[in-house]
Every structure is written in structure tokens, then in C-alpha cells.
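Field log, afternoon session.

UNIT: design team B
ACTIVITY: writing a sequence onto a fixed backbone
BACKBONE:
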């Protein structure tokens, strides 16, 4: 297993619609194992293929909810059904989201409260999860990655200007940049 470099916003893989996974082989299992290791090292609660430069429709997630239940799995070729997205101002505390491809930043946006995920795992076993709250948010965030959408693409205009400034200042927003979990100090 290996920790993989995580692509930073501006990289082509993050802004491209990913292709379905068609081959379920040892290579796919290695990729999934590496993605779990990379997500743990980051650390993060979700990681999508495009974030490690693999433009395929898969993501991994690892999140413990308020009741202590661990939600951990691999979603390949997922589909997502959502409840309506709330309208109005998002809450800076409750609705703030981050992304390993825009490291160190958090901005608020509304997401659907409920999501139903159907997918297969790395053994092609189908599964379905009905998620609420933060888990539903994780699924929406990771699913977006497979369509080449980052959460900052969905921000209200006030935040949109702010993140654009951050991206410019950090020299992101251009292809070919990545960071290495466990090695790079992102707060620097
Ligand atoms: Zn992300």
C-alpha cells in the first residue's frame, strides 16, 4: 500500500467528468487500498479517484457519526438520489465544508439533508445506504468530484470571491499541483 499525492484545484483530473470503472481487478483493489491509506494520512473523511489523478467513478469514505457508528466503504460507479437542497444563507458553523484538493480552507454551503447512495464495492458487490446529515454531505461532496465539480464551484457569490482570492494567492488553480499527506505542512 502507498500514500498517493493529492491533486490540488486547477489540476485537469479535478475538473473533468470521470469515466465508469469497467475492470474489477487486482489493480483496482490496490488503488482502493492506496486511497484508504491516503485518506487516513491526510486525514480526511472522503477521497475520490480524481483527487489522486485517477479519472474513474469511485470514492472511499471513512466517518464516525455522533452515535459512534463507523461508516466506511468504497463506492464504485455510484448513483445518488437527494432530498431538496435547503435555500437561504448557509450557516458558517454547521454548513462549512472542506476539501483535500483545496487544503486548509473551509466554506459554507447548503447540501441536501438526505441522500440515497447505490454503488458496488471493489468486489462488484452492490450496496445501498440512506444517509442523513453529514454522511449525506460527504456522499454529495465525493459524488461531485466524479463529475468534475468541487464544492467551491457551488459557493454563494460572497464566498466565491474569497476562495478565488485564496486560490490566486497560493498559486493554485493551475494544472499539475499536488501535496503529499504526511510530508507537506499545509498550514505553512
Ligand atoms: Zn473534495
Amino acid at each position: 500500500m502507498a500514500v498517493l499525492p493529492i491533486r490540488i484545484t486547477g489540476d485537469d483530473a479535478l475538473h473533468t467528468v470521470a469515466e465508469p470503472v469497467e475492470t474489477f481487478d487486482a489493480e483496482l483493489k490496490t488503488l482502493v487500498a492506496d486511497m484508504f491509506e491516503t485518506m487516513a494520512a491526510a486525514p480526511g473523511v472522503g477521497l475520490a479517484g480524481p483527487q489522486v489523478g485517477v479519472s474513474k467513478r469511485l470514492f472511499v469514505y471513512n466517518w464516525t457519526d455522533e452515535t459512534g457508528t463507523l461508516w466506511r466503504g468504497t463506492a464504485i460507479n455510484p448513483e445518488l438520489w437527494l432530498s431538496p437542497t435547503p435555500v437561504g444563507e448557509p450557516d458558517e458553523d454547521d454548513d462549512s465544508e472542506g476539501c483535500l484538493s483545496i487544503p486548509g480552507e473551509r466554506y459554507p454551503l447548503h447540501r441536501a439533508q438526505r441522500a440515497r447512495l447505490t454503488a458496488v464495492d471493489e468486489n462488484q458487490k452492490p450496496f445501498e445506504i440512506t444517509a442523513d446529515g453529514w454522511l449525506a454531505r460527504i456522499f454529495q461532496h465525493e459524488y461531485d468530484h466524479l463529475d468534475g465539480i468541487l464544492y467551491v464551484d457551488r459557493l454563494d457569490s460572497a464566498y466565491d470571491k474569497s476562495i478565488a482570492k485564496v486560490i490566486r494567492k497560493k498559486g493554485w488553480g493551475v494544472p499539475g499541483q499536488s501535496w503529499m499527506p504526511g510530508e507537506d505542512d499545509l498550514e505553512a
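LOG NOTE: The mean pLDDT is 95.
NEXT ACTIVITY: expression trials, pending approval
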